[in-house]
Amino acid sequence: MNQEQEIGPYRVRHAEERDVPGARSVMLDTFYREFGYGYVPAWHADTVDIGATYLTHPRHTLVVAVLGDEVVGTTALHSRGPAHPPHPRALAERYPSGRTAQLLRVYVRPGHRRHGLARAMVRAACAFAAEVPGYESVYLHTNVDVPGAEAFWRSLATEVFDARATGEHGGYGTVHFEIPIRVTCA
Questions:
Q1: Which are the contacts of 165, defined by CB distance < 8 A and separation ≥ 6?
Q2: Where are the beta strands (DSSP E) in the chain?
Q3: Closest Cα to residue 24, out of 82, 88, 58, 71?
Q4: How far is it, in rounded angstroms, from Cα 174 to Cα 149?
Q5: What pLDDT digit, counting tens, does each position of 36-66 carry?
């Protein structure tokens, strides 16, 4: 589960304690610079204690892309399905906590994009989920207003709900996707 992959000068691997400050920086920079709304405790509490959330929990992981010692990308996976609210009740019921591997924090610093890092991190996280007993599906939601996000996820996942017209998540361009657990290692 802890294999490292080289992509040009980058390495993609499961995070270690030494990666926590860099991973937190990537996440916070994304909240503030990319999304424009900053840190929202109800949505981003995992970034405060990355170690306990992702590194020590046996069903969770944080995958990082590194260049030298610098973390330039993150992808997290945990066992909590989408909560209602803010997500529609039908999604919370379809993807229950404990049986759902939720992908989140799929971020790559702007200067390091277009190298296949996000795809490699997602595949590593999904491979992890496929090896953890009890996961039935991989779920994620994304803000399709972020350039490239919608096309990226459509290349890997199947849309299950388009929330852009519902006002869910404060009216952000949220679309929900699923990656079948049995094809995650392909």
A1: none
A2: 5-7, 10-14, 61-67, 70-78, 100-108, 137-143, 158-162, 174-180
A3: 71
A4: 11
A5: 888 988 889 999 999 999 999 999 999 999 9
Token pair in block for residue 79: 């066992």
pLDDT in tens, 108-166: 999 999 999 999 999 999 999 999 999 999 999 998 888 889 999 999 999 999 888 76
pLDDT at 112: 97
pLDDT (0 to 100) of residue 98: 93
| CA–centroid distance for 107 within its chain | 8
C-alpha to C-alpha distance for 71 and 41, rounded to whole angstroms: 23
Task: Please give the structure tokens belonging to residue 47.
Answer: 């970034």
Prior bond of 9 cis (ω within 30°): no
**How far, in Å, CA of 5 to CA of 157, rounded?**
22
Paired tokens of 8: 């040009």
pTM of the model: 0.92
Buried residues in 54-64 as b, exposed as e (16+ CB within 10 A): bbeeebbbbbb
